[in-house]
Design goal:
Helix 17 packs parallel to helix 19. This protein has 20 helices and 14 strands. By secondary structure, the chain is an alpha/beta fold. The structure holds pyridoxal-5'-phosphate (PLP).
């Protein structure tokens, strides 16, 4: 009897201890989330589900911030002038796009979501410039109306060297592998050269080839889970790692990502979670987040605030990565640097070199394909192995029909060899100073003309932010286009330059950029209410949404 009581008491104490420990771990995890919706992905999804659908008619479109009549009249006239210009200048490209819009969901989606949804129908109808291009030369894109536009799309980050260079790399690569042609029976010998070069660049022992950055990330996470025997991955709030469900929890993904923790970037609390939880297989880092830790690139459809966005503190971010690496090493967590975007763009050794960090695995993609689609994973040999000597049936499967496609491998070979030449190495000489100076000069001009726009940059990766709040910042993308500057569909949240922008080309872009902002200001879009404008606008937006939600 006494013995039984003792057993129950020990079990009870152990149980209470266990539960308290669980509660502490849960609390630690909650506290390591960033307080914004970017840090609370489930909540973000719930909030998104509540957002009511409504659109402004012509009467409200120009006056959602209660601007005086004189201002709304200027806006209306500016909008009408832009619409007339778009109708005339982009006529062919627009009508081609309208014809396929419903048959290409990507176009239907991007054309609807490039501005806040309330403004979208009128903007779609009036300010479409179309989605087609027929040529590229130097830093210029030509659309189907023969308009020449400066390319600030950067082909989503692929275009590092300028499109002419990729045309040459693809041709050179095709020649290298031409005798074998598009056969997938085995590997073209050029693969061995690519592997040798990638090992040297990454400082890692093994390489696998995939068809996109998304797949390279999938494989990295799968291998980390396989080798650690742990279930969860950690990503940082706001970071993009491709569109695979596990790395994209929350809005945009219909399936819950239950084995993903989204933690606050650059946070001691996140390090505590990493040091104490035993179920974390890997941490993914997208170094672009150095520009805007804990939030995604500011998008035109969401920008309202005049919050400063985008300054990079290289020393602080390097120190953070070093601490993160140390904690991961001690906790047996695989550190994956996702260099799909930053690889080759910041330094020959990518963000790892730029920020002085070493990783267990590195993913590459985009420019590495020499202009063709690719994803690459480099890793420590032990982590890259897909089977166990002592458990032959316990394998980690990964395939992909077009992995190591000869033409992609040929273009990659041409790219990597080019980067080893004197000209390739010289691309990075004074690179940081040059692009920082360009950004600073443009900011000085904007400031001297009292324009409320600023740029921030990480090398050639730029974003636009604003010094005042407004419901209309997204209009800038249409003024920029009218001045001959082509942005990708994500709009002014991300401008990407290629390294072949010489002084004259950059000066032309800066001139047009300032001209666009000047016109936008003259047309009244940046009118400010009295007092705390940010507060007034946020309050108005909340009231408007609530009104529509409640019918
Ligand atoms: C950091 C990062 N990882 C992964 C991806 C996904 O690459 P892909 O679009 O080739 O699938 C991207 C794409 O933008 C990226 O920027």
């Amino acid at each position: 009897m006494k013995h039984d009581r003792l057993v129950w008491s020990v079990l009870g104490t152990a149980g209470a201890w266990f539960l308290a420990d669980k509660a502490r771990a849960r609390l630690r995890l909650s506290r390591a989330k960033h307080p914004s919706l970017a840090g609370h992905v489930r909540m973000a999804k719930r909030v998104a589900a509540l957002v009511p659908s409504y659109a402004f008619d012509a009467a409200h479109f120009f006056a959602v911030d209660d601007a005086p009549r004189e201002v709304t009249a200027r806006r209306q006239a500016g909008f009408a002038a832009l619409a007339a210009l778009y109708r005339q200048r982009f006529a062919v490209t627009r009508s081609m796009t309208a014809e396929v819009r419903d048959a290409i969901p990507d176009i239907a989606f991007t054309s609807s979501y490039r501005v806040p949804f309330q403004f979208s129908p009128l903007v779609r109808e009036s300010l479409s410039a179309g989605n087609f291009y027929k040529a590229s030369r130097g830093v210029i894109l030509t659309d189907c109306d023969d308009n020449a536009l400066y390319d600030l799309t950067g082909s989503f980050g692929v275009n590092l060297l300028g499109t002419d260079a990729y045309r040459d790399l693809i041709a050179e690569g095709a020649q290298t592998v031409g005798d074998l042609g598009p056969t997938l029976a085995g590997l073209h010998p050029v693969v061995a050269d690519n592997v040798r070069r990638l090992k040297a660049i990454s400082g890692l022992d093994a390489v696998s080839f995939h068809m996109s950055g998304t797949e390279a990330v999938m494989q990295a996470v799968r291998l980390a889970r396989y080798h650690t025997g742990r279930s969860h991955l950690v990503r940082f709030a706001g970071a993009y790692h491709g569109w695979w469900g596990d790395v994209q929890p929350g809005i945009g993904n219909p399936v819950p990502a239950d084995r993903t923790y989204t933690l606050a970037d650059m946070s001691e609390r996140s390090l505590e979670v990493l040091a104490t939880r035993r179920n974390i297989a890997c941490v993914l880092v997208n170094p672009i987040q150095a520009m805007h830790p804990n939030s995604g690139a500011p998008g035109d459809s969401t920008l309202v605030s005049g919050r400063k966005n985008g300054g990079v503190d290289r020393t602080a971010y390097s120190a953070w990565l070093e601490r993160l690496g140390q904690v991961c090493r001690e906790a047996g967590i695989v550190l994956i640097m996702d260099e799909v975007f930053t690889g080759f763009r910041l330094a020959p050794g990518g963000a790892c070199e730029y920020f002085g960090v070493s990783a267990d695995m590195i993913t590459y993609g985009k420019t590495l394909g020499g202009g063709l689609p690719v994803g690459v994973l480099c890793g420590r040999a032990a982590l890259m192995k897909r089977f166990r000597e002592d458990r032959p049936a316990d394998i980690c499967f990964a395939r992909g029909t077009f992995n190591s496609h000869p033409y992609v491998m040929g273009a990659m070979d041409a790219f990597l060899r080019h980067m080893e030449t004197e000209a390739g190495r010289a691309l990075y000489d004074g690179f940081d100073a040059l692009w920082n100076t360009r950004a600073a000069d443009l900011n000085r001009r904007l400031e001297s003309e009292s324009l409320p726009v600023r740029v921030a940059n990480l090398g050639t990766i730029w974003l636009i932010h604003y010094t005042i709040p407004s419901r209309y910042h997204w209009m800038l993308q249409f003024y920029l286009r009218a001045e001959g500057l082509a942005l990708s569909w994500v709009g002014s949240g991300r401008l990407i330059f290629s390294l072949n922008y010489g002084e004259a080309e950059f000066a032309a872009v800066a001139e047009r950029f300032v001209a666009a902002a000047r016109k936008m200001q003259a047309d009244g879009w940046w009118w400010q209410p009295e007092g705390d404008a940010g507060r007034t606008l946020r309050k108005g937006l909340r009231r408007e949404m609530l009104g529509h939600l409640l019918g």
